[in-house]
Design brief:
The chain has 200 residues and is α+β, with helices and mostly antiparallel strands. It is built from seven helices and four strands. The protein has a single domain, classed as Rossmann fold, CATH 3.40.50.
């Protein structure tokens, strides 16, 4: 399941026999207790009401079934903060059409205790969480190509700026990238994410 039709098309091309659907939380087109396990890979980062979304994931899992989640940790690891640092240093302003963040009643700490607390609050049992850390390697041109094309929240911020501010973001991005670059110009970008599981 994915909210983006083009992602569903890609999945069906890779696995034509799979049941892949366009749908979005917090309303899933499945019956109560329909699945033995549900995996939400970097989904709760992108929904406006993560508590409601998690309750919906719980609804479609059978009693004693499992839910597994990944989300980005916060504060972000240094490699993940690279673009945000460049945006801030350039003086970019978040456009009004992009959401400012979650309402306080819907937010939760993006750490191990925060994610397990969210799962317990949703009525899940045996919640455990660990922090995964790794280095992502890419050259600076490749890493910049996503935000330059407007990918994800950071990319939307970049795209919404004036040409002058976009140039300043890119200048700072190049400057800060040097902190992570080896002799060949390949960036080693530390990343961190949370991996959690719990039982219905």
């Amino acid at each position: 399941m994915d909210a983006e039709p083009t992602m569903v098309q890609l999945a069906l091309r890779a696995a034509p026999e799979a049941d892949v659907r366009v749908a979005a939380l917090p309303e899933l087109p499945f019956g109560d207790g329909q699945f033995d396990a549900v995996v939400a890979n970097f989904v709760l980062n992108h929904v406006g009401r993560p508590k409601l979304a998690l309750a919906e994931l719980r609804r479609v899992v059978r009693p004693n079934g499992w839910i597994a989640l990944t989300i980005w940790a916060a504060p972000p690891a240094p490699g993940q903060a690279l673009l945000g640092r460049a945006i801030q240093a350039a003086g970019a302003v978040r456009p009004a059409h992009l959401p400012a963040g979650l309402a306080p009643e819907d937010d939760f700490p993006r750490d191990e205790s925060g994610l397990t607390g969210l799962m317990h609050a949703a009525g899940l049992r045996e919640a455990v969480c660990e922090t995964l850390r790794w280095d992502h390697r890419a050259d600076a041109v490749e890493w910049w190509s996503g935000p330059a094309a407007g990918v994800a929240f950071g990319g939307q911020i970049v795209q919404s700026q004036t040409p002058g501010i976009r140039a300043e973001i890119k200048r700072h991005f190049d400057l800060f990238s040097a902190e992570f670059a080896d002799e060949a110009g390949v960036l080693t970008l530390p990343h961190a994410a949370l991996l959690a599981r719990a039982r219905h």
